[in-house]
Every structure is written in C-alpha cells, then in structure tokens.
Predict the structure.
Amino acid sequence: MKNLQDWLAHCEQLHPQAIDMGLGRVQAVAHRMALRLDCPVITVAGTNGKGSTCAMLEAILLESGYRTGVYTSPHLVHFEERCRIHGQSASANDLAQAFAQVEAARGEVSLTYFEFSTLAILQVMAQAGLDVAILEVGLGGRLDAVNIIDPDCAVITSIDIDHTSFLGTDREQIGLEKAGIMRAGRPVVVSDPVPPQSVLDHAAALGADLWRFGQDFNFSGDKLQWAWAGRGRRYSGMAYPALRGANQLVNASGVLAALEVLRPRLPVTAQAVRNGLAMVELPGRFQIVPGEPVLVLDVAHNPHSVAALALNLDAMGFYPTTHAVFGAMADKDLQVMIERVGAVIDRWYFTDLPVPRAATAAQLQQQWQSQNHRADAQSSTHASPEAALQSAIQAANPADRIVVFGSFYTVGGVLKDGIPRLHAKHLST
C-alpha cells in the first residue's frame, strides 16, 4: 500500500460483510497491538446529537489548554476528518502508518472496514500524547468497535428509531444497545430528556453513577442567554452555542455534565466553557451558508433528526420557496422522513448516491409521490448531489433557500469541492 487511499481500498475488500457486529475480532487485534489510551476517555453514543456533543466537548477542552483527540464517523469529504488531534485532522501519512500497524498485527483475523479503520485511528490517538480522548460510537454501542476502550465517562444522547435491523425495533431495545458503553461504577451522562427505561435499568444494574437530564442537571434560558445547573455547579448568563438548532441546548447540557463529572482530572474554567461553546464548529449540522439564495446543510438521516430539521427550518422565518436536495439510504424510514419535512419543502431534487445502500433518486421520488398532497409541490431526479444542487441553484430566486439533507453522502457530495458560491448566478443580473 502506497498511501491512505490504498489502505482504505484494501480494507473494503477484507470482510464479507460491511457491518458485522461483535467485539471478538477487533479485541483480538487490539490485544496483539497492546493498544491502550493513557488518558481520560469520554465515549458518546446515541441516535442523534453525538457529533455535536463531541464537537462541544472538544471545543471547551481545547479552550482549557488540553491536547485533545477526537474520533467521529462517518466523514463528509475526506477520511482524515474522522480523527482530529488537537483540533486538526490527522495527517494521511500518520493514518497510513497506523493502518500498516493494524495489518501487521491482524494476521488471519478478518476485519470490516470500520473495525480496521477504528483500530488505526485509536493507534494514532494512542501515539499522540493526549490529555483526553473523545470517542463517538459508530453504530449502537455494546457491539461497536469503539467499545473495546473503557470510558471514564459515558455520554448517551437522544435515542430514537434507526438501524433497526441491527439494534432492535423500538427505543427500549435500541436504548439497551446504546447503554452497552456504560461501565460498572463509572459515571454515565444521559442527555435524552425522556430516556428509555432500559437505559436507566442498565445503569442501576451496573451501579453506574447516573447523571440524568432533568434530575442531576438542567438548563433554563430566554431569547438572549441561557444557564445550566448541575449537582454542585452552575453557569449563568451564557451566550447560546454557535451550533444552531432546537436540540443544541440539550446536547450542551450533557456536555457540561460530562465535564463536571471529569472535573477532578480535567478542570475547566467558566471562561473556557463560554469561549468553547461560542466558537464550536461542526459542518453539516444545520449549517447555514449565507448567500443568495441561502444554503442549509444538514446530515439529518432518520425521522427524529429530520423532524428537528423541519422545526429549525420553520424557525428561520419566511422564504418564498424552499428547494430541497435529498438523497438517503434505502434502509431508512423514507416515507416518514419525507412526511415530517414535507410541509416546508416546495421543490424536491432527489439524487442518487454513490453507495450500494442508497435509494435511487427514482425510488425517493416514488416515495414522495405516494404521500404528497400538495398540488403546488414539484420534484425532479438527478444523478448526483452536485447535479441536484446545480438544478436547484438555477431554479431558485435570490430570496429563496436551498436545504441539502438526508445523508452524510448527500451533504458531502455538495461539499467536496468546497462551499458552493450560490449567489454567483445572481451577481450578473
């Protein structure tokens, strides 16, 4: 293998299944590598809000002067985005060397793409001299490759229906899978305001130190500022987090609870909290790109996150026409996703995506047509997110807005060449 791209192509061919839940293979290889993180570890699981939670934790801890390592997945454009060391994406060369170390250790063990890349990223983090590691669970929790690392603090964000073929068909089953990141006697922060009973029961059975939203920590606020209160500490008069969206205060509250839990080992100042929340960035999470027309990028890819997107779009105010570029995986609850945002979308631009799991643009359009009751709504199909976006740009007026959502691949597809210059068409008119 000459470079990172060669290694990624190699990993895609190794295992007969793209997703093969279980820790046996990855634990065996990690043991051969003597893989360990010699710093406090925060592991974050949940259906929605994981990426935002990791980004806010990272921003505050960076402001506090700590050397952070963050593992998130999937990426939007470049694989290197999955691993950040001290706020910067890991280098392709460092990752390639870590892939070589995994290959040397695995021997006869067959690893999935995710398992192989997780071990490589953990190896990069282990060698980076970190003060703190933040790990986002890829799928579920109990059997996810990230769960080979014992967290000092577990965080469980909102739980909803997703990945039902792997995690279960209701919130109780899914919650129990997420709860698998807990460890006996160690703290767990649950930021879901109405968590499944299975999560609470599992924490009790383990004797975990449960920090529950609404009981052990909470927030309050008005239009100008917000406040947080935990078991023994308060923050007041804070500006709202830089990440937009109706759920971000819930996520931020869980972040502050986790930092309170780890205060004896990782103390942070009130100013670091304020600065971190004010400066945090996370592409593709209700990301608003100014211009004419305005562009909204959101990786919402299940009914719960799409419902939040609909609320956020509604709160933006009036736009004459809202255009939507939409591409999604075929195994999602597509009809519900389309229904939940349909009232605020006037023109749909359905797109193919470059992965076998994806629904075709024609299939998405058929799902929309089967439940559309708006005579004024329109739709079209396109071969790629870029082509769909260009069609939306050509059709949109300067006062309109365009939203791109449905998958990391959809948002990543329009970001791969940089933020589009949406207003360029109108500069010449």
